[in-house]
Structure formats: C-alpha cells, structure tokens
C-alpha cells in the first residue's frame, strides 16, 4: 500500500475514535487540496527532511509525502494519534518517523536526519504557535532552510506586518531579524473540523543570508518588549524599563540609535530596533 492508497482521513478518524482536543489547540484540516497546496509551498523536498509539528491524524503528513518529501519527521505530543500515524509510516516507504514529545522541548538540530537540508511545515496548534516560531527564530545557528507555518490569521498578520500596520509589533521585528516572511493564503474556519472561532493563514519564512541577520535576539527581545509594552506612549517613556536594565536613560539609547524619542514604537522599522538593541547591549556591557 502506498500513501495514495490510504483510507480517507475521515474514515481514519472514525476508525480510531479520534476527536480534536481543545487543550492542545487542535483543529483537523481535512481538505486534501489545501494540504497539498501547503506542502507545495515547501518547494523541492526530494533531498530534504521536513519536520512537522502536531500532525494529528496526518492530513498534512500525507501531503508532504505525496509531494515528494525525502523524509518527514512528525512531532506529536498526543499519543492518541500514534496508531494512525503508524499506518501512514507503513505506507511511506520508510520516509516517515514520529517523535512523541512536546515540540517546545525538542532540539531539532540534534535529531538524526537523512538529509542535511531541513525545513519545517506545520498546521501549528493555536495555543503554542507563537512560542514555537520564536523558538525557531532564536535557534543559533539557524538550522532550517524554510518554514511553512499555519497560524491563526491575526498571528500570521503579526508575523508579516510592516511599520505603521496595526499588526506591527515584536513578532514582526523578531522575524525580520532572521528571515524574509510572506503571507501565502487565508483559510476560512469552515476548512477545519471542528471549525475554530477564527480564520487561519499560512506564512512562508526563508532565512536571510547569515551576514544580513541581526544576531543579538536577546537584546532585541528586551528592547521590543519594553517598547511595545506601552505602545501608546512615546519611545522616550516606553523604553524606560529596558534602559533601566542597562543602567542608562532612554534618551541615551535613542540618541545612540539616531531615533526621535517622541516617536512611537509602531512607527519605527525593524532596522531602528536593531540599532536600539545594539545601543542597549553596548550600554549594558
């Protein structure tokens, strides 16, 4: 039996008595056309290992294998899905392996893989999607060649936002430090079983060349947390917490970065926050 010969996903769910668990933010994507569309966003996968977080009953897993992934490593914390995933593995010509673990605790670079090229494609659980993205952005060195990720639509918009957008904030700046991000497409709630209360969207992230990345994400995180923690205030006021940690005044950081203290955080593009982070690190020593 090949992956194409597997029973319909609804039949698998019924046979194994599976249901989405709200505790894990689960919503099953049943449309094979959509899962194939997501898989194709990975590009050429024949000589790549694709990590998938939260495969559930395996809809996207099947698509990744069908679209030619050389290897898929699925990370699933809910043991109820392991038998269904094992059936896919048996039909995958040994191209699927499953790690039963919390994805936040998995050290992907330490996982033995068949291929040097590694990417990641997932319909991320709503409750940990942002935390997982930050984990992958902060990985040093960057181990992935592409991320194809589905989030709640509002989170996806935050990932790709630009200065001046309503959704612009810390997540967009942390992303811009490491990768180019683009919004691929929107999925209405009705595409899922059970349907969530909000729409979803897929984003694609490609890492910047190493020389173009902003490496000090710890400093950048401190600066952006302070700046956007009080986003209605001017940077002169909102940066007080971060400046205090460095033992200086906000004005000193702003002057070093060449930024007007009367500006608000949402108006400053990522490179302005990179300069602020550098100034903060220099002041902190």
Strand neighbour order, sheet with most strands: 4-3-2-5-6-9-7
The fraction of residues assigned to DSSP E strands is: 15-25%
* End-to-end separation: 61 Å
Low-confidence stretches at least 5 residues in length (pLDDT < 50)?
A: none
Mean pLDDT score, rounded? 94
Stated plainly, the CATH topology of the largest domain is called Rossmann fold
Give a brief outline of the structure.
The protein has 285 residues and is of the alpha/beta class. The protein folds into 2 domains: 3-212, 3-Layer(aba) Sandwich (Rossmann fold), CATH 3.40.50.150; 217-284, rRNA adenine dimethylase, C-terminal domain (Helicase, Ruva Protein, domain 3), CATH 1.10.8.100. The chain has helices at 9-15, 32-40, 59-66, 82-90, 129-138, 153-160, 170-178, 217-229, 235-238, 240-246, 250-257, 270-284; strands at 28-29, 48-53, 71-76, 96-100, 117-123, 147-152, 179-187, 192-193, 200-207.
How would you characterize the overall build of this protein?
It is a single chain. About 40% of the residues lie in helices and about 20% in strands. The protein has twelve helices and nine strands. It has helices at about 10-15, 30-40, 60-65, 80-90, 130-140, 155-160, 170-180, 215-230, 235-240, 240-245, 250-255, 270-285, and strands at about 30, 50-55, 70-75, 95-100, 115-125, 145-150, 180-185, 190-195, 200-205. Helix 3 (about 60-65) links the parallel strand 2 and strand 3. Helix 2 crosses helix 3 (about 60-65). The model has no long low-confidence stretch (mean pLDDT about 95).
Please supply descriptive tags for the structure shown above.
single chain; 285 residues; alpha/beta; Rossmann fold; Helicase, Ruva Protein, domain 3; 2 domains; two-stranded antiparallel sheet; 38% helix
